[in-house]
Predict the 3D structure of the following.
Amino acid sequence: MEQPSLARRLGLRQAVAIGLAAMIGAGVFSVFAPAAQAAGAGLMIGLAIAAFVALANAGSTAQLAARYPESGGAYRYGRERLGEWPGFLAGWGFVVGKTASCAAMAMTFAAYLAPPDWQRPLAVAAVVAIAAVDLRGISRTARVATVIVIGVLGVLALVVAAGATATFDGASGAVSSGSSPFGSTTIDQGWLGILQSAGLLFFAFAGYARIATLGEEVREPARTIPRAIGIAFAVAVLVYAGVGAAALGALGPTGLAASVAPLVDVVEAAGWQWAAPVVRVGAAVAALGALLALLAGIGRTALAMARDEELPPPLARVHPRFRVPHVAEIAVALVVIALVATVDLRGAIGFSSFGVLVYYLVANLAAITQPRSERRFPQALSAAGAVGCLVLVATLPPVSIVAGVVVFAIGAAYRLISRAARPSG
């Protein structure tokens, strides 16, 4: 029986909200400390490099989404322009890697709000609640994402204001030597450290792909999707630049690198102790926003792959009333709950970083093949994005590279076995 299609219910504002929920997630509350450990005072150079690579990838994604306004994102683009294998590998890396990321976001949410013994039950409850929102339709998802994004942006504005006060007062002593935190020590950590920080920062705000994975549910997709990606990307870069400058200025490279909760430390360095609980709650809410967008994106990518029989066909079922891939979303939620309940994910999701870079590498290579009539950005920008992905892969920790290769090998074996098992003819 032919399945009903997804419904085009998202306008520009709703698409931007979902993209921002993915980009301005829990990462902004934690990524600057490890980035400062890698780059020292060169943190802002790392951010600039990450922003450029993300800009190239966003351009490729927007250009392809205008041509292929369907569910699946880079899975669909790779399959259409490069062949079945590149498309499958992009989709597999996204589905497997981001499923682990969902579990990590749920645990991050719980870690900010509950003592250790209650964190796993609270994380499971969060997954159930967010899945229930997604299952009620993409419009409901967009409304919840809008509320979350507004709240998180308000908290980040508070952090930036506190950081400006701390820098001005010298409360943290970060710039007491009389030099700017962006001064002569910038390159002391070496370019490898700066590239490593760029990799960390890139993963933190590369969620604009969620807009592309929802391409089948956006109204006027050829016009709306590129605009939504551009707006969400611009806002995210401005937010990260403001927060990064505030954190570096308030705490200094050494203090920032040593921080466990850097944005909480920023408001405390300003003497705004009353704001610390607000920032912690903001981080928890941001994790929920990322979880909301991730579950929706994984469900749509799994739907696209199941339609092509790259994943089990039942995952392609669409709910007749709510017009969502309900079987795929329930399956993903169950896997995430199982991971939350049983696995310590702190050191187990390095392959997600590897998978994200493969995903965007496929998108950039697909964009390079588009004819001039479909091109919205210079071909050189897509080529630069592909090179950037490869450079960032090379800077990943060896354990992440090994884990990524293993995950993709498992995916390739699954595809070969499942295709061999299909009835001939």
